[in-house]
Amino acid sequence: MLAPLAASKWLSCPRPDAFAPLRLWCFPFAGGGAAAWHPWSAKLAGAAEVVAFRLPGRESRLGEPPLRDCTQLITALADQIAPHTSEPYAFCGHSLGALLAFEVARLLRARNLPGPAGLIASGARAPDTPRREPNLHALPDDEFIAQVDRRYGGIPPAILAQREFLELFLPALRADLTVFETYNHAADTPLALPLLALGGESDPRVSRGDLLAWESHVSGPFSAEFFPGGHFFLQPEVDRVIPRVRNFLSNIRVTPTSY
Asked: Is residue 17 a part of any domain in this protein?
């Protein structure tokens, strides 16, 4: 049985399930919150207890300054997971979230803690794949907003239309882009776990090759699947994605010790 999670401003578990075979820790995309993963809780019922991270600067933590340093953020996330590594678990992240999940897994390994039983990397280049676009995080607000929306198309129209909402959303998005654009990959031993890579068939920022390059970062089984859509294919295609995720989770070796 999975032990109940203590209340934490970092974590959101809308559907606790002590009898789930494992816990799926979900990492947000840039500017995103825990709510983006809430639909997965019901859709993965019986396969996993979904726990989504809520980072500073958004949702119920809107009044907190967001974290802009990659190492600091990865350390904070690992600290949240560390007390629960004796129970079976897996990681899932989209875009920036996939990178965070990967680095948290490596940090937990460095601490000699039991690692995740599997990793799902969605809409993300492999960590050692160089970015081809110029940085955006230091641009003035209006140019930053325009360029982020043009490049990724991930800012909800309702937020773009309301300047006061946009100004509340902006610090977290800028902080997350800072983390993403200042990340430096350090080569290390591949993670000994299975990895499922998910991509959008028409994603202009993550090519097929970028996604398939994740294979070199694990020594366990690797698989990849592409779905209709661009960088944010995950939400509109959720009913196609979930069966693939459920199948992956049901086939990984669920033990408290990976690596």
From this structure: yes
